[in-house]
Design goal:
With 602 residues, the chain is an alpha/beta fold. 64% of the residues lie in helices and 10% in strands. It has 21 helices and 10 strands. The longest helix has 55 residues. The radius of gyration is 35 Å and the shape is elongated. It is found in: Cell membrane.
């Protein structure tokens, strides 16, 4: 058991953790570098220690050219040097090389702590943001694109971090140290070294736009492919059932061909960039060799110094070349940051802070002249809808597809907000209510139930850790699941498979009803809960639903009109308006819209 102080520390750390990534997410999309710096806030100590150990562990590459030059000078001029100097230089380089083992390990260790923290943090920030975004946003965002952002783009940002830590920072240190040592020996030779920097900047400026644009095109094509692959997997039963395998293969192949073309353009752009970089700096090195050889020929420097300058110049060229060749990968990372911030910067979120937290509700819900128009459309989805639902009343909604039935249910759950009029819960405007608390009093049983790949028990008690087995079996009994559970070898601990694939539609629906029952909700929403079932399954589910709605405010959307005979009132929707309201018998007797719908089903 954790004591109170430990829990407080964990909660404080969690809040600080969330604050860091929320702060990073609020940065402008065109500031990927600022975004990256914000992500590493709180890890600067690890980064500084990593940098310190890098400098120490890299000592051999700085010392080796100097020792090599010293040894050549000692050997070429033995009269001016002693044998002892030779052994001192040898001992120095051996010690400097051996220290690399522990210091390199510490360098990677501190760097990895920072990078892994950021990698986990970005994914955590995305998960938190996805839980805050509106249902409308989720409907518009394809699952495949989302997976690409959470997996591929986060991985690309992680690689960007590694490029910065493993390549960028070491390269800059190598360049600075090499130039400083060279300036101390010969300012004229150091000019060659310094000139590599503007040359590198010029190359980056020449190729930057081309590489950035091709990276963006490639990233968008990857997202499209991921989305289509996700759709393909979901459609496999339909595809196989209709013999459309070749059609589906051709559809995916078309996307893959586009991706191949975008990838080829990106590879060619990077190839031109890399080749231009290599040729430019090889020419620099040749001219540096010629210049230092000329100085040695004139007696202005010792012969061994040619090797030293070539060593340092090779180090600089290698560092500058590394900086340039990693630029395409860094460009991918920056493009992935843009992709991630599309989600993190989205303002389509539910705002519940500071709103009324309901501790109890009776279930009285009133629609007062409700209007609903989707953004960018002039068509009213709902218009002049006025209805008061008493606590504990069962209301059924019927009508043609597109009449607005499911839209009303989405208003009750708070997934949609009216653009006109007022929706109240126990007399309180839903706009003033903390929806997270309000939804604790609601249970929803949709037409297509969503089960995760755990056990029956896991799916029933989802989000309720303190439920006892007695409560679970009571819910199972009321959901008419007892006989099914008894027949299973593992009982309630039976695995249901992905999306409940090991169960029938009726069994999945009754598990969803048990999940709703165990929460003891005040408001029940049944969205065509039996429309996809056969008669036997519908019978069992109907019996379960009778237990579910007892004493609770219930909203039912149904296409099978026979299933709502016992509803307290039936609301007939037509083109976003209420056409009729009454009991089953009253509406049949009136021979209006409901009567005609019923006749169509006979």
């Amino acid at each position: 058991m954790r004591d109170g102080s430990t829990l407080e520390k964990i909660e404080k750390a969690r809040l600080n953790y969330e604050h860091t990534f929320q702060q990073a997410a609020t940065l402008e999309e065109k500031s990927p570098v600022k975004f990256l710096i914000a992500l590493y806030r709180g890890n600067f100590t690890n980064l500084l220690l990593s940098l310190l150990f890098y400098i120490v562990k890299s000592a051999p590459i700085f010392v080796l050219p100097i020792v090599t030059a010293n040894i050549i000078n000692i050997v070429s001029q033995p009269s001016s040097h002693s044998e002892r100097e030779l052994w001192i230089n040898f001992a120095v380089i051996v010690v400097v090389i051996l220290q690399n083992i522990p210091t390199h390990t510490w360098y990677v260790s501190y760097m990895s702590r920072a990078i892994r923290h950021v990698e986990a943090g970005i994914r955590s920030a995305l998960v938190r943001k996805l839980q805050q975004l509106s249902i409308t946003y989720h409907r518009d965002l394809q699952a495949g694109r989302l997976q690409s952002k959470v997996l591929r783009d986060v991985e690309a940002v992680e690689q960007l971090s590694k490029q910065v830590m493993l390549t960028l920072m070491p390269a800059l240190i190598n360049i600075i140290v090499s130039i400083v040592i060279t300036v101390r020996n010969s300012w004229s030779v150091s000019l060659f070294f310094v000139m590599t920097i503007p040359a590198a900047i010029l190359l980056v400026r020449i190729f930057r736009k081309k590489i950035s644009s091709t990276n963006k095109e490639f990233r968008k094509e990857i997202e499209k492919m991921s989305s289509k692959m996700s759709e393909m997997v979901e459609m496999i039963p339909v595809t196989r059932a209709h013999g459309l395998e070749e059609v589906e293969i051709e559809r995916i192949d078309g996307t893959l061909r586009k991706l191949q073309g975008k990838g080829l353009r990106l590879d060619i752009a990077e190839a031109y960039f890399g080749a231009s970089n290599w040729v430019t700096f090889q020419l620099f090195q040749v001219f540096c060799l010629l210049f230092t050889a000329f100085l040695a020929y004139k007696g202005q420097i010792e012969v061994g110094n040619i090797v030293m300058y070539q060593g340092f110049f090779s180090m600089i060229l290698g560092s500058v070349s590394a900086l340039i060749t990693t630029y395409p990968n860094m460009a991918k990372g920056f493009e992935s940051i843009y992709s991630i911030t599309e989600i993190l910067n989205s303002q389509e979120i539910e705002r519940n802070d500071g709103k009324l937290k309901l501790r109890e509700i009776s279930g009285e819900i009133a629609f007062e002249d409700i209007q609903l128009v989707y953004p960018g459309s002039e068509h009213h989805v709902l218009e002049e809808v006025t209805l008061t639902v008493r606590a504990g009343e069962c209301i059924a909604f019927v009508g043609e597809s597109g009449a607005g039935k499911s839209t009303i249910l989405n208003l009750v759950t708070g997934f949609l907000r009216p653009t006109g009029g007022k929706l109240t819960i126990d007399g309180v405007n839903i706009d003033d209510i903390d929806l997270r608390e309000y939804r604790k009093f609601i249970s929803v049983v949709p037409q297509t139930n969503i089960l995760f790949s755990g056990t029956i028990r896991d799916n029933i008690v989802y989000g309720l850790p303190d439920i006892t087995d007695e409560q679970i079996y009571a819910a199972i009994e009321m959901a008419n699941l007892s006989e099914m559970v008894k027949r299973l070898p593992a009982g309630i601990h039976t695995k249901v498979g992905e999306h409940g694939g090991k169960l029938s539609g009726g069994q999945r629906q009754r598990i969803a009803i048990a999940r709703a029952l165990i929460r003891n909700p005040k408001v029940i929403i049944l969205d065509e809960a039996t429309s996809a079932l056969d008669n036997a399954s519908e019978y069992h589910v109907q019996k379960a639903m009778q237990e579910l709605i007892k004493g609770r405010t219930t909203f039912i959307v149904a296409h099978r009109l026979s299933t709502i005979r016992d509803a307290d009132r039936i609301v007939v929707m037509k083109q976003g308006r209420i056409a009729e309201i009454g009991t089953f018998d009253e509406l049949i007797a009136s021979k209006g819209e409901f009567y005609h719908l019923k006749q169509l089903q006979i």
